[in-house]
Design a protein that fits this description.
- It is a single chain.
- The protein has about 350 residues and is α+β, with helices and mostly antiparallel strands.
- The protein folds into two domains: about 240 residues, no CATH class; about 100 residues.
- It is built from nine helices and 14 strands.
- Strands 1, 3, 6, 7, 10 and 14 form a six-stranded antiparallel β-sheet that branches.
- Helix 2 runs antiparallel to helix 3, helix 4 packs antiparallel against helix 5 and helix 5 packs antiparallel against helix 6.
- The longest helix has 20 residues.
- It starts with a helix and ends with a helix.
Length: about 350
C-alpha cells in the first residue's frame, strides 16, 4: 500500500466527521487572487498551513502525538511523483501543550514552490494523531528532519530522496496506531474553477457536516471566522494554496545560478572562451529544468543570454553586471508576455554571436 493510499483510507473512514470547505473569493478579505486558476506551464503553486486550533486534551503530547502531514502527487518533468512531508511540534511554534485550545497562526509552508504542469494534482494534508509513548514523539522529530530534504528547492536535486523519505514516513505511521484527527484529500484537474488547481483557502473542521453552515465561514486577514467571530469549540486547520506567476527563489536553483555567475566571473577576467562555456551550460540547464514552468524555461534561458551579451558588449563582468540569477530576472519580461511568444530553437538560443 502506498503512502497516499494509507492517507486516503484514513480520510475515507473519518470524512463524515470533517467539514471541508473551499472558501470562495466572496468569503475572503482581502480576496486577492482567491479562485484564480493555476495555468499549466505558466504558474507555480505552494501549499501552506495558515492556522490551526487543537482542543485541550491531556492525551496530547503524552500518549497521543500530533504530526502535521502533507502529500502532493503531481507531474514533475516527465514523471509522476509523490512528495511527502511531516512537520512536528519542534517546527510549529504554538503546537504544544501550553497552547491547546488556542488558535495558532502559523503560515508555515508544507511544500516547496512547484511548477504547475497540468494533469491531475492530488493534495492530501492534515493532522495525524499517533498513539504511543514519548519515545514516539522523538521519532516524529527524527522523521520530520528527513522529510525536510524535500522541502528545500530545487526539487529536482532532491528527487533521489523521495523513496527513502516515503519509506521513513510509512515506518512512522506503522509504528503507532495512527488515525487522521483532521484531514483532507483533494484532486484537481482541468482549467475551470473549482475543479482546476486554484489559489485560495480550504478549511478542515472536526465537526459533523450537519453542525456547521459553511456559508457562515469566512477568512479575514488570513484567519478563519464563523459569522465574523473566531471559530471556537472545534478543532480545525486552515490551508492556503498559493499561486505565483514567478519564482521568489531564483538563486536556490544552483544548477542554473552557479554557471551563470561563473560565466560573468570569467567574463570579468577576460576569458571569453570559458565564459561562453559556462553561460551555455546555464542556458541548457534552464531550457531543460523541471523546476521551471514551460514559459520560464524560455524566459530564464533567453534572459541569461541577453544579460551575458549585454555585459560582454559593454566590456562588463561580475563587478557591474547583475551578479545573481535573481538580479538578472528582475529585468525580465513577465511570464505571461513570454508565454505568448514563439520560443527560439535550441540552436538559436546557444548562438552567442560575436
Amino acid at each position: 500500500m502506498t503512502l497516499l493510499e494509507t492517507l486516503e483510507g484514513w480520510w475515507g473512514r473519518d470524512a463524515a466527521h470533517h467539514v471541508v470547505h473551499d472558501l470562495p473569493a466572496t468569503a475572503v478579505q482581502p480576496a486577492g487572487d482567491t479562485g484564480a486558476v493555476c495555468q499549466a506551464g505558466m504558474h507555480y503553486f505552494r501549499l501552506w498551513l495558515a492556522e490551526m486550533r487543537l482542543a485541550q486534551d491531556q492525551a496530547w503530547f503524552t500518549t497521543r502525538h500530533p504530526a502535521v502531514h502533507a502529500l502532493v502527487r503531481l507531474r514533475f518533468g516527465d514523471a509522476d511523483v509523490e512528495l511527502p512531508r511531516i512537520v512536528g511540534p519542534m517546527t510549529l511554534p504554538g503546537l504544544d501543550q501550553a497552547h491547546l485550545g488556542d488558535v495558532v497562526h502559523l503560515d508555515h509552508p508544507l511544500t516547496p514552490l512547484l511548477p504547475c504542469s497540468g494533469g491531475v494534482v492530488e493534495v492530501s494534508a492534515g493532522l495525524v494523531a499517533l498513539e504511543g509513548t514519548r519515545v514516539l514523539g522523538q521519532f516524529v522529530t527524527a522523521i520530520e528532519a528527513v522529510t525536510q530534504v524535500l522541502a528545500q528547492p530545487p526539487l529536482s536535486t532532491a528527487l533521489a530522496a523521495v523513496g527513502p523519505v516515503t519509506r521513513a514516513v510509512q515506518t512512522l505511521f506503522g509504528a503507532a496506531a495512527g488515525r487522521q484527527h483532521l484531514g483532507v484529500h483533494l484532486a484537481y484537474a482541468g482549467d475551470q474553477w473549482p475543479r482546476a488547481l486554484h489559489a485560495g483557502y480550504v478549511a478542515v473542521i472536526r465537526k459533523d457536516v450537519t453542525q456547521i453552515a459553511v456559508g457562515d465561514l469566512s477568512v479575514q486577514q488570513g484567519a478563519l471566522r464563523l459569522r465574523g467571530a473566531p471559530l471556537m469549540g472545534a478543532d480545525y486547520m486552515l490551508f492556503r494554496l498559493e499561486r505565483m506567476a514567478e519564482r521568489d527563489d531564483w538563486d536556490s536553483l544552483a544548477s542554473i545560478a552557479a554557471p551563470f555567475r561563473d560565466a560573468l566571473t570569467a567574463l570579468s577576467h577576460g576569458n571569453a572562451v570559458v565564459a561562453e562555456a559556462h553561460v551555455r551550460r546555464a542556458m541548457l540547464e534552464a531550457w531543460t529544468s523541471p523546476d521551471l514552468t514551460r514559459a520560464d524555461r524560455t524566459r530564464v534561458s533567453t534572459e541569461i543570454k541577453r544579460t551575458f551579451q549585454e555585459a560582454r558588449s559593454l566590456g562588463l563582468g561580475l563587478e557591474r553586471a547583475p551578479a545573481t540569477l535573481a538580479g538578472a530576472m528582475a529585468g525580465a519580461l513577465p511570464a505571461d508576455a513570454v508565454g505568448r511568444l514563439q520560443p527560439p530553437s535550441l540552436e538559436a538560443l546557444l548562438d552567442l554571436g560575436e
